[in-house]
Write a structure and sequence with these properties.
By secondary structure, the protein is an alpha+beta fold. The chain contains ten helices and five strands. It is 69% helix and 11% strand. Helix 4 runs antiparallel to helix 5 and helix 7 runs parallel beside helix 8. The longest helix is centred in the middle third of the chain and has 66 residues. The protein starts with a helix and ends in a 6-residue tail after the last strand.
Length: 353
């Protein structure tokens, strides 16, 4: 027992070393062992038989050895190949699982696997893990997009109901009063009020349409669209905003323009509603094939990590996802009492994406 216990670590180490041998050397070593053992054993038995039975027939003995050698060769090769190709069987099983939709399928490792098979299995597992993360991210993004669409529909419906619908209702009331009135002076007064209500309703509908899809962005580009957005913010009186354009000489890719415009729109909306700022500043810069947008304010600021942890819909995390979709990045700097700076950057051309 003492000898056996002393030899166990050596046997285990030799077994692991044999398992790490490449497949080529396993087969070569197996063939060499079979040939060497067959040659030695055949020579010993043949010499013994010739000396012991010099007058006997020896061809039958050679035939027996040849048959036994073939059987032994087949058995040894079968065992070596089964052991060496077992990782391929596990890899094939994992591939079949992924093909059937099981993204949790992985290739299990074994100490006896060939080193190249081990690397192949690790690469496969990493690829499947990446695909699984991508599928999960795609489902999450799809869910967030659906939620954002519903939020936008609710916002548009609420604005149409609260503003445009009320103006149209007042117009109907004025028209009904005009039908019942016989005083020309009152009729002229009602006509004047109807003109004002109509103009207000048209302005409200135009504003909602521009927020949904600003035509100026499609016609004149990102710089003019951002300038128009800044004018709208200044007209509301919520905050004083300025804009600076540097190096914007040509139109950007359509999806990049739309993504940066939505970033600016979301950032300015947050400034007007939540920051309590007096001033906001936009800067759009194109340099070295990269276009960057910065929106900063002197408002109350916030804890970025805490806000992103509880944000819903297309908030801060949604802004990051917009930039990811166009191959860009988003960086948010803020702290309580120190204002906020949102910086977005994206390739200015398809060749850089």
């Amino acid at each position: 027992m003492i000898v056996s216990g002393a030899w166990q670590p050596r046997v285990a180490s030799a077994w692991r070393l044999a398992g790490r041998l490449p497949l080529f050397y396993k087969i070569l070593l197996g063939n060499s062992v079979i040939v060497a053992l067959g040659a030695v054993a055949g020579t010993i038995v043949t010499v013994w038989h010739v000396r012991t039975f010099p007058d006997d027939y020896h061809y039958e003995l050679i035939a027996v050895f040849a048959t036994a050698g073939l059987i032994l060769c087949f058995v040894v090769h079968y065992g070596v190949l089964r052991l060496a190709l077992a990782p391929l069987d596990r890899l094939q099983a994992a591939v079949d699982g992924v093909r059937s939709g099981d993204l949790d399928a992985r290739v299990a490792a074994s100490p006896l696997d060939d080193e190249r098979f081990t690397r192949l299995a690790d690469t496969f597992n990493q690829m499947v893990a990446t695909i699984a993360r991508g599928a999960q991210e795609s489902r999450r993004l799809s869910q967030r997009i659906l939620e954002a669409q519903e939020d936008e529909r609710q916002r548009v419906a609420r604005e149409l109901h609260d503003e445009s619908a009320q103006s149209l209702t007042l117009m109907l009331v004025r028209l009904r009063v005009m039908e019942l009135s016989e005083d020309p002076a009152q009729i002229r007064q009602h006509v004047h009020e109807l003109r004002e209500l109509t103009a207000r309703a048209l302005e409200e509908i135009r504003r909602i349409a521009l927020e949904l899809r600003p035509k100026i962005l499609e016609d004149l580009g990102l710089g003019e669209a951002l300038a128009w957005r800044v004018d709208e913010v200044n007209a509301s009186g919520a905050v004083r905003a300025t804009i600076q354009l540097v190096g914007i000489e040509r139109r950007l890719p359509r999806d990049v323009e739309l993504a940066l415009y939505r970033i600016a729109q979301e950032a300015l909306t947050n400034v007007a509603r939540h920051a309590g700022a007096e001033h906001a500043r936009l800067m759009l810069v194109q340099r070295d094939g990269i276009v960057s947008l910065a929106v900063e304010d002197d408002g109350a600021g916030f804890d970025v990590h805490a806000e992103e942890a509880r944000a819903g819909g297309l908030g801060l995390s949604g802004m990051r996802e917009r930039m990811t979709l166009v191959g860009g990045t988003l960086h948010i700097e803020s702290a309580p009492g120190r204002g906020t700076r949102v910086t977005a950057a994206a390739p200015a051309s398809r060749g850089r994406a």
